[in-house]
């Protein structure tokens, strides 16, 4: 079952899209003009909002949705 991504902000969805492409946190931060700390905070917020177990699960879901 796919989590409800409608609860995520547009920026969080952008981060997921870039995660799916295999970009590092630093590359995502550069691409979106954010700090790495902000990217990491958004990733943790997404894990919490979506009820996931860890960042690896977030990466898997990102790949399933955006690839």
Describe the structure.
- Keywords: DNA-binding, Transcription, Transcription regulation.
- InterPro entries: Sig_transdc_resp-reg_C-effctor (IPR016032), Tscrpt_reg_LuxR_C (IPR000792), WH-like_DNA-bd_sf (IPR036388).
- This protein has 67 residues and is mostly helical.
- The chain has a single domain, classed as Orthogonal Bundle (Arc Repressor Mutant, subunit A).
- Helix content is 69%, strand content 0%.
> Which outline best applies?
globular
Number of domains: 1
Topology-level CATH name = Arc Repressor Mutant, subunit A
Q: What do we call the CATH homologous superfamily?
A: Winged helix-like DNA-binding domain superfamily/Winged helix DNA-binding domain
- Mean pLDDT over the residues: 96
Find the count of extended strands (DSSP E, 2+ residues): 0
The top level CATH class name: Mainly Alpha
**Rg of Cα set:** 11 Å
What is the number of helical segments per DSSP (H or I, 4+ residues)?
4
Kindly report how far apart the N and C termini lie.
17 Å
CATH second-level architecture: Orthogonal Bundle
- Strand composition percent: under 5%
Main sheet attributes: strand count, strand direction, barrel closure: none
Indicate the percent of residues in helices: 55-70%
Secondary-structure element pattern, one letter each: HHHH
- Structural class given helices, strands, pairing? mainly alpha
Low-confidence stretches: none
GO biological process, one term: regulation of DNA-templated transcription
GO molecular function: DNA binding
Domain HTH luxR-type: 1-66
InterPro entries: Sig_transdc_resp-reg_C-effctor (IPR016032), Tscrpt_reg_LuxR_C (IPR000792), WH-like_DNA-bd_sf (IPR036388)
């Amino acid at each position: 079952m796919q989590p409800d991504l409608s609860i995520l902000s547009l920026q969080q969805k952008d981060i997921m899209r870039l995660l799916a492409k295999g970009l590092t946190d630093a590359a995502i931060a550069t691409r979106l003009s954010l700090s790495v700390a902000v990217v990491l905070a958004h990733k943790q917020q997404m894990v919490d909002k979506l009820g996931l177990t860890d960042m690896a699960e977030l990466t898997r879901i990102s790949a399933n949705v955006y690839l």
